[in-house]
Amino acid sequence: MSAQAGPAGYDTARVEAWIAKHVDALRPPLRWRRLEGGHSNLTYLLEDADEQVAVIRRPPLGELLPKAHDMHREFSVISALAPTAVPVPHPLGFCDDLDVTGAQFYVMEFIEGHPLYNANDTRAYVAEPSRTALAHNFIDVLAALHEVEPDAVGLGDLGKRENYVGRQVSTWYRSWIASAGPAQYDDPRAHAIHDFLLAHLPDQGPARVVHGDYSPHNCLVLDDGTIAAVLDWEICTLGDPLADLAYALNPWPESGERVRAESAMSVPGFPPRSELASRYAARTGRDLSGLDYYVAFNRWKSAAIVHGVYARYMEGKKGTEGVQLDELRQSIDYSLALAESAVDRLDG
């Protein structure tokens, strides 16, 4: 079956026929408008003749890794979290019949708000007086997520519960080793930090639902600083909430700290990272005395991820037009330096 001309990846006639049967909130025919973002998933705003709107989402075209762009996982997570204090779009329908349009897809509520990818987004959508409220709401939503008991909402089988960080360290170290040759770039810090992380694995408390990429670019933000919804749950799993916290704190600078000039958090008006960490501790009661371990882990993991991307460019597996390879390499170095600093604080 080949999709008809129109929205990429969708046979609109078949999809709209499916929606007519399974999604009460919409009445086809529909108008389709592409929404940007979402990790390359094909995401569209749907509007019917009654001006009712919703969002449809499916994986990108082409061959995918087995667990990449998992629509069923996303739909299951937002379905489970919808009754909780975690703001997510209301799920409207899931289709696993590949005959409809060649891939799984789901339909969810449309929610107003703006993701914050860069400083221009922050300036445009969140005025300076609302930025402290945004930061506090951002951390409160994460705390609410980590207070959800997975079994109580039907997510007890979302992932393995034990040794989350240890498994992640092993996975990304294999990636670093495999990429070092093609990248023509290795760094002794990557190996030393790997050894440190494995030798000092913390005792993980009860596993919680972790988003895996909780950041302002995966939130819909209102102009008063409220997080209207958290999006992009495709890599969500069960794991150590402090690893999720350390990742979420990455873009928020400490007072006087150098930050990337055009990052979303580089504009004035935000409280320092330490204030957000303290707020999370007060909300959850979790001990953050070992937070620098998780900071080191996340920075080291970021270096490994970019190292793998850099290797694919160096191998010629990805086109380099418009890509600044020097900046990618500098990003690896910068992440390793931050990881090393976190390890030094733990040893100090």
Overview of the structural elements:
There is one protein chain. The protein is an alpha+beta fold and 348 residues long. Helix content is 43%, strand content 12%. The protein has helices spanning 12-22, 71-81, 98-101, 119-125, 131-147, 164-183, 188-199, 241-249, 273-284, 291-315, 325-347, and strands at residues 30-35, 42-48, 53-58, 91-95, 105-109, 208-210, 219-221, 227-230, 237-239. It has a five-stranded antiparallel β-sheet with strand order 1-2-3-5-4, sandwiched between helices. Strand 1 (30-35) and strand 2 (42-48) form a beta hairpin. Residues 1-5 and 64-68 have low confidence and may be disordered.
What is the overall pLDDT average? 91
**Helix-strand pattern:** HEEEHEHEHHHHEEEEHHHH
Strands of the widest sheet, in order across it, are: 1-2-3-5-4
- Share in β-strands: 5-15%
Q: Which regions are unreliable across 5 or more consecutive residues at pLDDT < 50?
A: 1-5, 64-68
